[in-house]
Design brief:
This protein is mostly helical. The protein contains eleven helices and three strands; from the N terminus they run βαααβαααβααααα.
Length: 321
Amino acid sequence: MLMLNQTDLTPGSFILNGIPGLEDMHMWISFPFCSMYIVAMVGNCGLLYLIHYEDSLHRPMYYFLAMLSLTDLFICSSTIPKALSILWFHFKEISFDGCLVQMFFVHTFTGMESGVLMLMALDRYVAICYPLHYSTALTNSVIAKAGLSTFLRGVLLIIPFTFLTKRLPYCRGNIIPHTYCDHMSVAKLSCGDIKVNVVYGLTVALLIGGFDILCITISYTMILRAVVSLSSADARQKAFSTCTAHICAIVFSYSPAFFSFFSHRFGGHTIPPSCHIIVANIYLLLPPAMNPVVYGVKTKQIRDCIVKILLGSKDIKSQSI
């Protein structure tokens, strides 16, 4: 019997097929994707600029927000440009190694975003429950170590995905019904045993998502207890208002993630594949697009800095005239 080399079963490239079943609507679907991508890029770059140049924003809460903005920039930039090239110009081909690199970035930075949201919950917990120790507990070195640990956690847990995916034999074609490479979309093209991939994928989801959600839940339970015990209604409202933007960020991030996770496992035959793919793209686009808007609207210090910059530019213009 003729034995095939592993290299014979490794494709040189994959074809990302966009959103199957909605080919006629690719151009229309691309407009909201492009609009959200532009909002995400402008909004997050603007936040990073504000946090870097405004001394009043050099505080732990805004350093964590800068981490979130930087993570969001990497998330949407690793997938959306390629998705738009598929929807607009039908540039569907991606090299095998390029697919693995994209998969690594997507999963690493989505895990990083979850970790940063958890760190932001802990930041709010310390700020509300231990306000006198806030500045001493969350020093710049502690924040840097927390951010680095979150990043390394994602890298170390996601690197095995690339090796598990690369070792598989691919004899079911090279067409991926998606706009970007993710772990299971690629693994499903294999004719080999992907049980290890499935089990490891679920393990990583529990280690990252499960742990972070548990920490967020515990933090907000303690925050709620501390806020309810406050005697002043104004103090309660002020304490809650500092958490509003973060709660919105959690909802924007985890809602599409939960839908995608559970629909793949329990609604695979009832929910059309095109819906899965659109939600998967929204999962990567919605948080980066909405987080700067929410924090800009809900956070007084950021609003004040934006007004200050706008008024300053107006004053310069009026003086030049």
